[in-house]
Design brief:
Helix content: 40-55%
Structural class: alpha+beta
Number of domains: 2
CATH topology of the largest domain: Beta-Lactamase
Distance between the termini: 40 Å
CATH superfamily of the largest domain: GAF domain
Largest sheet: 6 strands, antiparallel
Number of helices: 9
Order of helices and strands: HEHHEEHHEEEHHHEEEH
Shape: globular
CATH class of the largest domain: Alpha Beta
């Protein structure tokens, strides 16, 4: 009985996890395909979640996250320690540099943005809390991958495909870069995930040396040049250390 209950709860959370900023509305068929569950099973879960206001069903037979999830999200954000600790430091860094600052962590097979402070300038990097990106492209992804277990690295190496002309797709080259990142405690990306964007990132390490998060500073290459990016790395590293001290104290 307990195993059945745990499975149902797990499936309910899996349904909620199907919705993203890019896919805020989904049909029964889409959710069923994403989860690999029979339509009948998926429909029962959806019907229950709708009755609890965790999901909303529309007249066109699509579903979206409901008011209960929205309210729980507000409570979670107010008490979520990484946001509470990191945001003031990130805002100070943004105010000093005028560039976008983001905090990423690994979620499944992706890096997800947990906290974002936008640039003060009109030309900026557009990132949203909840956005998911590849682990093997971009400064933050490479930082998280550099400190990840070997099996995760091997898994990501099998995915290497070009996103831009600058994306690293050679396995040996990426492995060498990950080793360099561990040695210098920062990564830099020159348009690997998005053309015209330079980003730097440093690890937020716990007391065991695990990179739980990556702190990133990014901007358009026309303004945020290679020289400027490298110049700000010590400040970024200092901010990362301060955040780690508060998070893992």
């Amino acid at each position: 009985m307990k195993e059945d209950t745990v499975r149902v709860v797990g499936r309910a959370f899996a349904v909620l996890g199907c919705f993203t900023l890019d896919e805020p509305k989904l049909t029964l068929n889409q959710i069923s395909e994403k989860l690999g569950l029979p339509m009948s099973t998926t429909l029962r879960i959806l019907t229950t979640l709708v009755s609890l206001n965790a999901l909303r069903r529309f007249d066109d037979r699509t579903y979206s996250l409901g008011s209960r999830v929205y309210l729980l999200g507000a409570v979670a954000q107010a008490h979520y320690k990484p946001h509470r600790v990191a945001h003031p430091y990130m805002q100070d860094l943004r105010d000093e540099t005028k560039e976008a600052v983001s905090l990423y962590g690994i979620d499944g097979e992706y890096r997800v943005c947990y906290v974002h402070v936008p640039s003060l300038l009109s030309m900026r990097c557009v990132v949203r809390v909840g956005d998911r990106f590849e682990l093997w492209a971009g400064a933050s992804g490479k930082v998280l991958l550099a400190y990840a277990p070997e099996d995760i690295v091997e898994r990501e190496l099998r995915k290497l495909t070009p996103i831009t002309a600058a994306t690293i797709t050679d396995k040996e080259r990426l492995l060498n870069e990950l080793a360099v990142i561990r040695g210098q405690d920062y990564a830099i990306s020159y348009g690997e995930r998005e053309d015209g964007i330079i980003s730097t990132a440093v690890p937020i390490l716990d007391w065991h040396g695990n990179a739980v998060y990556a702190l990133s500073l990014a901007g358009p290459a026309l303004r945020f040049t290679k020289e400027r990016a490298l110049e700000l790395i010590p400040k970024l590293q200092q901010t990362g250390v301060e955040i780690a001290r508060q998070l893992f104290a």
